[in-house]
Amino acid sequence: MGTTQLETVPEPKYWHLRTVLTEALDSEFSVGEILPNERDLAARFGVARATLRQALEQLELEGRLQRRRGVGTTVAPPRVGVAVGSEQHVWPGAVGDAWQPTDCATAVPPASVADALETGHDVAVHTVRRSRGTHGQPVAAELLYVPASSVPDLSAIDAPAGAARARAVLRELQRLDLDGQDRAVELGSARADDAKELDRLPGAPVLVVTTRFHARGRTAAVSVATYRADTCRLTFGDSGGVEIHHDPERRAS
């Protein structure tokens, strides 16, 4: 590869470098390919390594690049879509649900969740952990908070912990008549436990989708789902639910 020097431009140098790198990704690299190290890239484009890092961080935020432990910086695969709709109302665990239950524990939820559930800040609730992936890649992790009052018959089920307990909680939820649900989406940073599950670094950008499920005139459960911001994009429509779909024909974008 030859050496490309950047011309003096009015915009920040790292932003211009981002544009140049984007063109290089489209023309010279394929999905999954490992980029040269920072020293070589900085020399190629005639910039300081600090400027290069700013451009790489921006491209990672946009989903063009991924930093993988023990591998390096690679070209990211196409983003998957997170469709956020409002017409279809179903409980987690219903037929066709793409989430996989992995664990269940009884714990005091965050204060914001306790306020939504009206359980009190010191009352433990069933906390179901679920995961979601596509094409062998982890894309989301969820914590589903369910107070005991929403699943009163659960105590009679011989499933003390783990995925079996999680499935039992989800089955008991189906007994309630769901009145509706509302959903909010915000940009956040990956906590240590979510980062590990999603194969990201702590503090990496994520999309946090909070869903409140209503039954019998109250909030019967709260879901906090954390999606990888580098691989997911939001799509809005009337399909209902939160759904991941994949277009194998799209290039990384």
From TrEMBL:
Alphabetized Gene3D superfamilies for the sequence: Chorismate lyase-like, Winged helix-like DNA-binding domain superfamily/Winged helix DNA-binding domain
Keywords linked to the UniProt accession: DNA-binding, Transcription, Transcription regulation
HTH gntR-type domain ranges (all copies): 11-78
The family database entries (SUPFAM superfamilies) matched by this protein are listed as: Chorismate lyase-like, Winged helix' DNA-binding domain
The protein's matches in InterPro entries, at most eight in alphabetical order, are given as: Bact_HTH_transcr_reg, Chorismate_lyase_/UTRA_dom_sf, Tscrpt_reg_HTH_GntR, UTRA, WH-like_DNA-bd_sf, WH_DNA-bd_sf
* The keyword Ribosomal protein is assigned to this record: no
tRNA processing among keywords: no
Tell me the protein's name: GntR family transcriptional regulator
